[in-house]
Amino acid sequence: MKVFDDKHIKNVVFVGAHRSGKTTLSETMLFEAGLINRRGTVEDHNTVSDYHNIEHEREASIFATPLHTEWRNFKINIIDTPGLDDFVGEIISSIRVADTVVTVINGRHGVEIGTEIIWNYIDKYHKPTLFVINQIDHPDLNFEYCFKSIESLVGKNAIKIQYPIKIDNAQCIIDVLKMKLYKFGPEGGKPEKLEIPEDQIELANKLHNELVEKAAENDDELLELYFDQGTLNEDQLRKGIKAGMLNHDVYPVFCVSALQDMGTGRLMGFIDNVAPAASELKSEQSIEGQELFPKKENPAALFVFKTLYQPNLGQVTFFKVISGEVNVNDKLTNARTREVEVINQLFIMDGKERHPINRLTVGDIGATLKLKHTETNDTLFEGKTPIEIKHIQYPEMRMTSAITAKSLADEDKLSDALKKIHSQDPTVVISYSPETKEQLLGCQGELHLAIIDWTLKHEYGIEAIFKQPKIPYRETIQRSSTANYRHKKQSGGSGQFAQVRLKIEPWHEGIEEPEGFSIRGKEEVDLPWGGKLVFYNCIVGGAIDTRYLQSVMKGVLEVMESGPLTGSYVRDVRVIVYDGKMHSVDSNDISFKIAGAHAFSEAFLNANPKLLEPRNELIVKVPEEMVGAVMTDLQSRRSLIQGFENSDNYQILKCQIPAVELYGYSTDLRSITQGKATFSSKFSSYESVPTHVQKELVKEEV
Known about the structure:
702 residues, alpha+beta, seven-stranded mixed sheet, 16 helices, 32% strand, elongated
């Protein structure tokens, strides 16, 4: 395949809400450029980018898929991404390596919640962005509404390059950069280029002047020319628009019909001539703070942004060449593992199709096979000076499920498969809870979980069981209590004897020292599971030898690891050992450990024990008209609403919710709001469980 230089490589990522037309647009661009002879459709399961079986089954993109097209001596690398936020990891990694983000808007709906979520990541990475309003030939098109919704998202820096119009029942596009009208036949394709009609010239001139002003604002030289001449020519406009895109201050808006191939060629021409190349973007930053400039002369550095496992190929590693060039048989070092990897093969990928190539230069995107020590977020570098590019930051998981293999014989297979799934999608988090003795799988929602289940069944042959994870409750007390326990065991020879008198009290930060006791020692233990044990030695007259007190405390801690109420961890208790007895022959460490454990258990159960549950801070962004339904659902989940914020046509609800109530929430929220609401949550604190809930939980343990 042809090797393009860095100035003729443009990397774009297609993002947008579910069913906005990203896959259809990418298919049409490949067709328009002649790289494919026939356009596939999502419904017919024959598009280049949606090639996975699960994508055919669901008729939706699940994975980010790299492909490429060529247009007028430029190579355009395209990454087609999913539109559902359950697969946000695929979207983020693609945005990270793109030079320009193409945000596709459904012409009937405008900016949707999925677009807003994605915009937050575009804004974070400060990526040059353009918008494409799709389906301009649809009878329900509302172009002005769509444009205003883009303005609501990004502000007044959204600028129209084009707008659609019907003339004699023919679909047309007026382009105010070129000041031409494009008239399309019923089948789309190459348009007829005409002058703008008289009844549109006033509006076109107005929009052209706005474009001139916006372009001039971003370049001092252009601003002087504008003041001198009162206008800018087409080349000067391109220069100013590019400067604005690089500054993240100009967002050009185009319009197309991806399905009917209307406006696609013009969009590709703009990407060629105006959208920035990798060499024009800011330098990459290493973890150590070094700058890595995109120059061909520099040592090679590759950043791995995606890993894919395919049954017949094994591991496919996708990367962007950040600096230098990479050739077949090059030896590069992994910055994380310090292992040397041999690049035995290089490919340009078009969906599942692999096109071998001998060399890739800076700015290009490619793939290789069967690297042994390399995963997503790794940097491969040339030479002896290590450099590790800043990692992609993935969002926190939004739901957790316990997972086991249906067959015990598949447990090892399941573990290996989950490691590969995590490597392929870092938003899948695998962990083990020693407290609940469960393997846990964290992900972005129930749909994400369903895809993981499908993958395990169909690609790894594993039947898995998913269930609500056990909640890591905590136990504590609400009042003081005393206990006296004597441990005595005689079985010939030396026996066991220990007697412990102790008092327990609730502990909290800033509590005063206990009264009525002679405090001879105090030990504070920060518990691994949170909270404290404060242990006092208040023994008078040598009733218990000091050397046995550590054994008493060990017994107490042993009980605190499996609380008397439900077997949950105990926290925030202080223990005052004030009396007891020992025997000169039969007393020993084990005796006092047993006595301490029993005394603590007895006192605990008499101290009005209380269960604590983990509560999360939950933030829900919901359309104003759906707030009532969402709040009703939240109240049914024992949530405490703490506040509201307005955000355009949305309300942001902030509340505290028991962690147990979050299982299944993403599905229910999607159902209540037709997928128009989003949420995030994180652990906040442990709070008391309502009495009726505690009774049920204690009953379950009995």
